[in-house]
Amino acid sequence: MTATAVPTVLTARALLLDMDGTLVNSDVVVERCWRRWAERHGLDGDEVMKVVHGRQGYASMALLLPDRPMAQNHADNARMLAEETADMDGVVAIPGAEAFLASLAGVPHALVTSADVALSTARMAAAGLALPEVRITAESVGASKPDPEGFLKGAAELGVAPSGCVVFEDSGAGIAAGRAAGMQVVGVGPRADFHEPDVVVRDLAQVRVEALGDGRVRLYIG
Question: What string of DSSP letters covers 25-62?
């Protein structure tokens, strides 16, 4: 990991937080479910795992099975979401996530996740994390990351211009979405370092939040 060789300070008016890989480590569940799906469809599991992080399931399926009708992808995605929601074995908080969320009391922030309401609620609970009051889930958008719609909706819900937002993301699709929304992006974890966010942290223990008196937030990173 190279992007945090020196400490970095960012200033924002709102924070937009991805869930999986950013606040919650659900990798073991994602691997189990998607590798089973890959086997059912005769696909290489390693290649499937390169695609699925950060995207809604139907969007991943459309990339992996480009000749399949989209209606079938949506139906298959509904089954996948149910399967993932029933499997919380191994879901844990990213180091520093609980303290990081607690430090955001009074700071405008939103969860922006490709999970639906049921899955995001279950995973945050399994990880012992409080759900942000403002949540943009799969039901909230018509397009999956890397489309910026989710982050733009999060900014609008908070009443903050996109340029005043900092996104926390782990995946290539999510980082691309944050950039397309015109926002600064903090990458979280080893996946993020391959996708050139503005700065990368090992985990959320490397982030300290200071609320300034004028509505801005200062982030000390590294």
Answer: E-HHHHHHHHHHHHHHTT--HHHHHHHHTTS-HHHHHH
